[in-house]
Amino acid sequence: MMRFFKNVKDLNWKYALGEISLIFVGITLAIWFNNWNQNKIDGNKKSEYLLNLKSDLEEDIDELTNLISSNNTRIKRIDLFNEILEDSYNPDISCDSVQKYMSSASFINVFVGSSTVFEDLQHTGNLILLDNKSLKRRVMKYYASAESRKKYEDLNSRFHINTIGTFLKKQWNTKALFGLESNDKGKIDSLTFDDCKKTIQNLVEFRNDHKIKQELKNHINFSNFIIKGNNGEYELMRAEAKALTSLIENES
User: Does the predicted model carry a pTM greater than 0.70?
Assistant: First the structure.
């Protein structure tokens, strides 16, 4: 015991404290450097995510703009078709026009969207990198709304096909209307002269049969209602996507 105290007494405390201090400083510097390096990595990763997120939003803006433009054209065509249904037979009406007007009411455009980057942020847990809470909330809300919109449009599109699609297949010469052999889906091909005559003949029959004409008008007016409603939602989504791209630019 005496030897122990003698050794402690003989210890160079200044040297020992200096060693301890160096070790402490070394550990502190190592932790600081590690944190600095990790922050740098996270910062670079965040910048890359923001850049790609902005790119996805810009794709959404372009898609929504195209959908709005396409829907506006379809709304005009449906309105014209309503007018055609109320007129007496006009030999100047081309079957191509009837085909375009009627096909405008036969399907619903759907929003696809670009959500790859946001899904990656969610699945990897990197959403935490978006340290601007206000921006993060708006991004999450935007993509939640977009997902809800896609599910709604999918259900609406199926319902539309099962109602107006079934009606057209039953009441209208689908070969003449859509240029198809066996179904009411697909791209519109060119019509033969006989197909054109059948299209106009169908139109005349529809005009003369009040019950069928009214049912058709109900279907196409419902289409018009849905298309206009979708356009209103697209306008709101596009405005929010534009606002988010501006916020991301300020954040970058």
Answer: yes
